[in-house]
Structures are given as C-alpha cells and as structure tokens.
Amino acid sequence: MTTTRYRIERDILIEAPVDVVWRTVTEPSQITQWFAAEVDLVVEPGARGHLGFGDQGGPVLVEAVEPPTRFSFWWNQPTGAELEPGNAVLVEFTLTAEGAGHTRLRVTESNLEPLAWASADKEHYAEEHNEGWGHFLGRLAQLHGPRA
Amino acid sequence: MGEPAVTTVPDDGLWSAIADPSRRRVLDLIVERGEASASWLAGEVPFTRQAVAKHLAVLEEAGLVARRKQGREVLYQADAARLGQATQALADVARRWDRRLAAIKRLAEAAHAAAVAQAGGAQPAPPMPDPAEGSANHDHANPTDRLAPGMGQRPPAPPGEGEGADEGP
To answer: Within this chain, do residues B22 and B74 fall inside the same structural domain, yes or no?
Structure first.
C-alpha cells in the first residue's frame, strides 16, 4: 500500500536482443560505461561488491541474477549498517524480449525512503516534477490546498 | 571507502520515522486530511490510541508533522515543505535512471550493430542517431555532461576517471 509511494519505475525499448542488453547491464566493464566509475562486483546472488562514483560510493549486495531476464541488487543503506536484504534501496532490472530482436528494459528502484528523505535535506532541486509521481503530487496538492 | 553513496543521511530519526508502515499510515492520513487530531487518527487505524500518540511523537521529532492547539484539541499537520522536497528528490532519482537507461540503450545497440556487422559481413547499419541525444558522441556513454539541473553543482570527475559513469544514486 503506502510503500508504492516510494518506488520508481522506468523503462526503455532497446533495438538489440535480450542477451546483448543483459551483458550491457551486468558486465562490470559495461557498467562503468553507463553507471558507476568504479565497479567491484561479482554478478552472483548474495555477492557483496562496491560501486564508486568519484568521491561517493558504497557497498552493494546482489539479490537476484537470472540471465537474461532479471538482475537486482541492494544499495544505499541509510544508516551505515551492513547491507542486508530489506534494509536498503532495491534496484531491479527486468529484460523482456519484444518484437523482432528488441528488448524492453525496465528498472525499478524501491524502498526509496532513505534517498527521498535524505535528499530532502539538500538544498537544490530541479523545479520540474516527474509525471510518474502524479499520485504523490496529488496528495501534496491536497496538503497544500487547505493551507492556501 | 565504505561510505554509503548517500552521505547526507542525517541521524535524526527521519529514516526510522518513516520506515515503520504503521507510522507511514498515520502520516498518510494526516496528509490526506490536511490536519488531524490524535483521537480522530486513532479511530482510523487498527492500533491503539497510545500507539498513535507514540507515532505522532516520532513524526513530530523528525519534523514531518507539526502540532497546534485549538481549544482543548491538539491538531497535527504534515510539513508540506519537507514532503515536497522528498517528492522532488524522488523525481531526481527517476531522471537519473532515465539517463542510465538511455546510456544502456546506446551501448547495447552499438554492441549489437557491431556483432551483426561482424557475423554477416553485411553492410553494417550506421550507428543510429538517438534523437534524445542530439549531436552527442556515440562512441561512449557519458551521461554526466548534460545532466539535469542540480547535477552541475557537483565537482566534475577528474579527467580520465569516471568516463561514462554518473554522479551516484
């Protein structure tokens, strides 16, 4: 119920077969091209690794590896505790064959409260909103309404 | 470093305040109603008034709700600014994933085109210009250099390092 509020889901259609997309998503030498600058990761369930983003970075814990359709990992444990399933943010990739040799790549990031609220304490944010958050924005509108 | 990628998580009870589903339910109800008393809330949830009072105290301490007195009643309001900031932070997370997905698309399509060209000896399709990318360089993904607002405030990665990588979660 309320947990869905802190989840994002995005997808994209890629003109390449699922196995090619799978390699792009999961091979460390590829991950450095689209994600983290430093990737220390074994793509196996339960494996612990590290993603580095310049002066930031942190541990990851691989959750599911089901080639070539599903890959997920935990990251961003908010309190500095050891990463465990459920105590951090979960990233899940789902690959689905679509049409002639195309792939629908979907990513969800859930359990996002720590990111949302930690970032809320930072000062600068873009003005535009994401359409996918209509539900939450609607609630905010309700919230602002009585005050206006 | 073993530091979490989000380095600004304050140890102020915010996380534990909203990590509890019952407490989120209380916060949701306050948001939906605009303002609510503890006794009204207690009538809406399947737990005791004492539990509601405890949840409210935690939410208040975390800055998520504020209270005011009206006659004998104490009314709780959610902090709109803080909720709005959280919403924007989530939109920001979504935009980062959009950029990453676009980079994956470029990489996978380039790899596929190369494999097809090699296997078939057929005429390789020219790299597909990605309309979203304009005149971007297709040889490698480098999502950091034309990012959404906010990203520019981070110091650029040192040259040679972090090419194609982004700024973190």
So the answer is: yes
- Residue in A51, A116, A143 closest to B34 by CB: A143
Q: Within an 8 Å CB–CB cutoff, is residue A115 touching chain B? A: yes
DSSP string, A4-16: GGG-EEEEEEESS
Give a yes or no: residue B110 inside a domain. yes
Whether residue B163 lies inside any domain: the answer is no
pTM score, whole prediction: 0.62
CATH number, domain containing residue B30: 1.10.10.10
pLDDT at B75: 96
A34 interfaces chain B, CB cutoff of 8 Å: yes
Give all domains of chain A, ordered by start, each with its CATH number.
2-147 (3.30.530.20)
Task: Read off the pLDDT band of A13 (50, 70, 90).
Answer: very high
What is the total count of domains within chain B?
2
Residue B36: inside a domain: yes
Closest approach of A10 to chain B, Cα-based (Å)? 7
Question: To which residue do tokens 């609607």 refer?
Answer: A138
Contact B8 A118 (CB under 8 A): yes
Q: Let me know if residue B2 belongs to a domain.
A: no
Domain holding B133, by residue range, is: 104-153
Collect all residues of chain B within an 8 Å Cβ-Cβ radius of residue A59: 2, 4
Residue-wise pLDDT for B51-99, tens only, equals 999 999 988 887 888 999 999 999 999 887 777 776 777 778 888 999 9
ipTM over 0.85: no
What are A52's strand-pairing partners? A38, A57
pLDDT tens string B102-152: 999 999 999 999 999 998 765 545 555 544 444 444 444 443 333 333 333
